[in-house]
Design brief:
The protein is an alpha+beta fold. It is built from nine helices and five strands.
Amino acid sequence: MARNIGPVCRLCRRNGVKLFLKGTRCDTDRCAFERRQNPPGMHTFRRSKPTEYAIHLREKQKVKHYYGVLEAQFRRYFEKADRAKGNTGNVLLSLLERRLDNVVYRLGFGLSRAHARQLVSHGHITVNGRRVDIPSYLVRPGDVIGVRNRPKSRKAVEASLAECQREVPEFLSRTDGPEPEGHVLRLPEMEDVSIPVQPQLIVELCSK
């Protein structure tokens, strides 16, 4: 599976917003975005205002980097959202929030989305009691997200829960204990997205 292997702190600085790509480190004084909020590169200050296209593109890139998807994946999500009923931008973000790796992260089972993606890919996560190793799997209301009943899987998730104190969004619930599990209560809405985003800008760009 293709993925971004470059320095992720540059992505936060480029997008002008903290994307929490390094887990709990982003909440500490070591966060590079807090120390250097100017864009990366030699020419850190723009001499002119960004164009309308640049504003639309930056909004799309911000969402792509936040959820860890590539251009082809993002286009497929947009096409699916465009065919669905309702506001295209809201449906697009709902689809991204329903990704299994994102749900594992929002439940606190993973320190970051990259870590959550690794947990899913390595077979540590179950959905309704069955092992699912596809990070892009879309959860549905009523699904139960659990941890495989083996020491290695439980240890990995317990370590994440002990380190992070992330608030669980309203469309999910988490049951702590020897066998932690999460429940999908409903489809995510715009209020559940934890990053400031203007979906209409993305729709206008991708519709051209």
